[in-house]
């Protein structure tokens, strides 16, 4: 016990950053919360793998980190591609220089909404695959780098949503997938915590300002698994209808920023949360408390 307390104390002194020397994979980190997380993790000394399907955006984030003196590598690919997941893990282990991976943040995803009676199999299958199956496959592939006893911290953070905690009309697929990662997190925490000290948590975001919550009329879209052009965002008519009442049930009376979301990710993966595992941390500005 004394040795463990000394180890934690040493981590908390972090003269070179809270994540100094650690290699972190952050999926969906070409933009939004993921990109902010990549920058924050790098600022705290992590060697960051910027994983995204958009090569140009991923490289821009990686370049911005290296230009500031940090360490980052863009590894471009589709999380629904099993071969890419293998490539991603191999690249991460090699990039660190020590054949180690310390952190995985499963952040990649998008929404493809419809009410239940109009939801297609394609919508259902794509969202479940991306938000539940892909995180599992990445963690399984990286298992040899987490099931180790070298005294170094290991942390997995799966990104969920209030939709996965409370449900949300029009998001049966997304709600199920996001609820699923909570069960996945708890299971891995129970399997890998006792022998290997791996911490696994879920973070459930509320209303964070990203492309998923901007006006749909701005034209943001993602490409589906079969080349579908999927519009994302909230219709302007909905935004206008809710007006000032949009944040009435948020005690802080505003949406969160991508940087605030990423900061919560950093806190959970840092030594500050060294005794927190198997939990779902709500980042909502107080909504649904």
TrEMBL record:
It comes from Pseudomassariella vexata. It comes from the Eukaryota. Coiled coil: none annotated. Pfam families: adh_short (PF00106), adh_short_C2 (PF13561). It is an enzyme of class 1 (oxidoreductase). Residues 22-211 form the Ketoreductase domain. Belongs to the short-chain dehydrogenases/reductases (SDR) family. Its EC number is 1.1.1.100. This is 3-oxoacyl-[acyl-carrier-protein] reductase. One of its GO terms (molecular function) is 3-oxoacyl-[acyl-carrier-protein] reductase (NADPH) activity.
